[in-house]
């Protein structure tokens, strides 16, 4: 994924939803941000590799 | 059904016999399902049944079945097999699938450009709570990789040869009369029906092969040898059956992807902040964590699907929320009213739903309860971080309602207007570190049990958890008296200040105006300790407010605490305070008016009766002003500087003069004097707003 097209809070948000559902617990906003960054970083890295 | 060919009688009989045998074996098969038997199995079965030589019979079967059009001869791993079906000759099924829905779905003819791969992925929520990989067609991946996004040239690859049809193969069960179990042989792979997957008809041998359509870069199909066995000549010479040759699958290798320029790893927020995703996440979080949290929270709030919902700092998938019906809400409301105080969410869950915190879904259930109650207008969240308290309509949290919320909000507005000087005595940092705040009690605070929420208290008390939260209920414990008080914190909103109320009983029973009180944090986020310095018994004639007569008066009061003598409103020091008019609360918010009234009441008249001039010190003003309403010294200074009728004494710091403007003409003065005989304060006449009865 080209990071230029990332809209923070919209792009790949469904993956964040999936992660949140899988945890089964309410998560703090900072944990949510951290996980979201992981998802975006992974998407960008995979594409570049 | 294919008719049996004309053959010598014995061959015809043999072929017919075997055909019936194989059809009987595959009686439950579909009409076109191939039924296979090896030549060896057939020969062994018939040799035993008819008592003939097996080798001779094998040659006869091979000859007879090869000549019969109902059978197809094939050789697999050197083993001869015959295939037939219940309807006669075996014809492989056509599975050419060049225009399937699946293909059209993933490879549209005129694709739209993609800005974001996430729009391609379905946004529908999975039904189960597991992480499932989202399948994205390779087509879209290729499209996304190509920048700029343009429709790729129609490099249509040849359709791949269909995989061998997984047809049910008849087990290689020897047709022995005893039906002895034979070792199961490996199922022979179905030969690729090469002739059927080529768009052009299979060329006949010796015929010039037709060129394949240019658009479909398909190599000319290899002529299939012996796809149909040649009819056997009438002579006994047995031609060697042509083996079935599998046609190689004409797979076209995908075109190598053109070299792409390196992708950007930097994304930009709406405020222009650029963040490089190559950096470690911890580093990004340390630098932009708060900003990203704010942006993400706003985005999730605006998500039309509301896939992730929040309560406070916690976020949870909307699909996972537990449901609460109207009966649940009524039950919770009744329970709060029955207990007659705000209740923790954990109490509600434990007492009404018997949920155990050790249950796996406890936190999700707790979140669901808080989220649902927050959306109901009959419930009000009055908790703080770590203690989620709920009140409901009709619940009286604090007993004292002598001061209306709207009036107190306006009275304490000086705090949000920049006249909060509480940090001069104890800095905000010191309050945060020590976990306690110390302050002197004014008369207004003592009388009404109210504390303005200044910077010092705000640093000590927890902030509101929700953006629209107006109130929090805290529990103040007095270790000196083992009593507990529910204190309502009203947070500042807009141009209205905040305050605490609910300490009226504690103040009136244990301390006096001018007492030094200390509020200390405890281990519980909603529990605080309130203490004062105890002292020997003192009895003073202190200012009190007679609510029935609506007037101030001095009365003997005994107290057992250390007080600041400067702040203690004794009759000996502040004897004029009982002349203060008990304005209604709605009028006390007018700070200028109160300051003028206080200055007139307690100031020393240094002018003439025609041109009165009152001298008053800032300290006295502070004490008297705080009898009627709260106000900081900084606020009083600002009022004094702003007031046209006030002037500071240049020679004496802290001394001010108040010279009210001439009020009326000579005739009116006479009337005024008459009214003065009626002991009406001049201010009341001047503003003409108040009646004695008020």
End-to-end gap of chain B: 113 Å
N-to-C SSE string of chain A, H for helix and E for strand: HEH
Mean pLDDT of chain B: 79
- Structural class computed from helices and strand pairing of chain A: mainly alpha
Number of strands of chain B: 23
Hey, roughly how much beta strand do the residues of chain A contain?
under 5%
Helix count of chain A equals 2
- The N- to C-terminal Cα distance of chain A equals 11 Å
Number of strands of chain A: 1
Radius of gyration of chain B: 49 Å
**Shape type of chain A:** elongated
3D structure, described in words:
The complex is a heterodimer of chains A (49) and B (694). Chain A has 49 residues and is mainly α. Chain A has one domain (3-48). Chain A contains 2 helices and 1 strand. In chain B, helix 1 (9-25) crosses helix 3. Chain B is elongated and about 155 Å long. Helices cover 30% and strands 16% of the residues of chain B. Chain B contains 21 helices and 23 strands. The longest helix of chain B has 22 residues, at 281-302. Chain B is of the alpha+beta class. At the A-B interface, helix 1, strand 1 and helix 2 of A face strand 4, helix 7, strand 6, strand 7 and helix 10 of B.
């Amino acid at each position: 994924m080209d990071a230029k097209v990332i809209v923070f809070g919209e792009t790949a948000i469904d993956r964040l939803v999936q992660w949140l559902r899988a945890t089964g617990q309410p998560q703090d906003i900072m944990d949510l941000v951290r996980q979201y960054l992981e998802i975006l970083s992974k998407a960008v890295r995979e594409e570049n590799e | 059904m294919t008719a049996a060919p004309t053959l010598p009688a014995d061959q015809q009989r043999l072929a017919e016999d075997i055909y019936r045998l194989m059809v009987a074996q595959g009686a439950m098969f579909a009409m076109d399902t191939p039924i296979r038997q090896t030549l060896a199995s057939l020969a062994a079965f018939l040799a035993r049944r008819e008592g003939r030589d097996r080798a001779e019979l094998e040659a006869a079967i091979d000859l007879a079945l090869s000549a019969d059009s109902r059978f197809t001869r094939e050789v697999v791993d050197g083993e001869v097999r015959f295939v037939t079906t219940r309807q006669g000759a075996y014809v492989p099924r056509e599975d050419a699938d060049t225009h399937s829905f699946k293909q059209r779905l993933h490879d549209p003819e005129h694709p739209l450009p993609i800005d974001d791969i996430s729009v391609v992925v379905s946004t529908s929520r999975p039904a189960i709570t597991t992480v499932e990989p989202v399948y994205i067609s390779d087509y879209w991946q290729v499209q996304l990789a190509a920048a700029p996004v343009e429709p790729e040239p129609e490099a249509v690859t040849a359709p791949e040869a269909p995989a061998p049809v997984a047809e049910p193969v008849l087990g290689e069960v020897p047709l022995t009369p005893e039906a002895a179990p034979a070792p199961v042989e490996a199922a022979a792979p179905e030969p690729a029906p090469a002739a059927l997957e080529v768009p052009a008809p299979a060329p006949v041998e010796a015929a010039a092969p037709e060129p394949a359509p240019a658009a479909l870069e398909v190599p000319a199909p290899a002529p299939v040898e012996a796809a149909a066995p040649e009819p056997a000549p009438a002579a006994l010479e047995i031609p060697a059956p042509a083996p079935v040759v599998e046609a190689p699958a004409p797979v076209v290798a995908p075109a190598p992807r053109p070299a792409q320029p390196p992708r950007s790893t930097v994304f930009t927020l709406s405020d222009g902040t650029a963040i490089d995703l190559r950096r470690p996440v911890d580093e990004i979080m340390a630098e932009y964590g708060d900003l990203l949290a704010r942006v993400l929270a706003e985005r999730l709030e605006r998500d039309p699907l509301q896939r992730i919902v929040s309560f406070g700092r916690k976020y949870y998938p909307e699909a996972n929320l537990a449901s609460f019906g109207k009966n649940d809400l009524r039950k919770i409301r009744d329970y709060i009213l029955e207990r007659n105080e705000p209740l923790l969410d954990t109490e509600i869950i434990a007492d009404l739903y018997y949920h155990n915190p050790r249950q796996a879904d406890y936190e999700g259930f707790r979140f669901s309860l808080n989220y649902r109650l927050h959306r109901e207008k009959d419930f009000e969240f009055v908790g703080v971080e770590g203690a989620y308290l709920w009140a409901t309509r009709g619940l009286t949290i604090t007993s004292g309602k002598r001061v209306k919320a709207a009036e107190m909000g306006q009275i304490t507005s000086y705090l949000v207007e920049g006249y909060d000087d509480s940090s001069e005595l104890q800095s905000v940092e010191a309050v945060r570190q020590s976990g306690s705040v110390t302050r002197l009690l004014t008369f207004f605070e003592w009388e009404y049990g109210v504390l303005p929420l200044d910077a010092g208290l705000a640093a000590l008390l927890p902030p509101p958890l929700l953006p629209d939260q107006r109130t929090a209920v805290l529990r103040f414990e007095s270790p000196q008296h083992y009593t507990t008080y529910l204190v309502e914190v009203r947070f500042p909103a807009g141009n209205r200040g905040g305050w605490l109320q609910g300490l009226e009983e504690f103040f009136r029973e244990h301390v006096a105006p001018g007492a030094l009180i200390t509020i200390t944090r405890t281990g519980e986020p909603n529990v605080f300790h309130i203490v004062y310095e105890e002292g020997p018994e003192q009895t003073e004639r202190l200012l009190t407010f007679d609510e029935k007569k609506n007037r101030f008066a001095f009365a003997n009061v005994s107290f057992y605490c250390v007080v600041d003598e400067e702040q203690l409103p004794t009759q000996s020091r502040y004897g004029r305070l009982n002349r203060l008019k008990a304005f209604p609360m709605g009028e006390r918010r007018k700070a200028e008016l109160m300051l003028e009234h206080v200055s007139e009441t307690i100031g020393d008249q240094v002018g003439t009766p025609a041109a009165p001039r009152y001298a008053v010190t800032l300290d006295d003003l502070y004490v008297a002003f705080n009898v009627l309403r709260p106000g900081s010294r900084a606020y009083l200074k600002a009022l004094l500087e702003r007031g046209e009728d006030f002037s500071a004494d240049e020679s004496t710091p802290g001394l001010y003069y108040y010279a009210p403007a001439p009020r009326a003409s000579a005739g009116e003065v006479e009337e005024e004097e008459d009214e003065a005989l009626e002991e009406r304060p001049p201010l009341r006449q001047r503003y003409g707003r108040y009646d004695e009865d008020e």
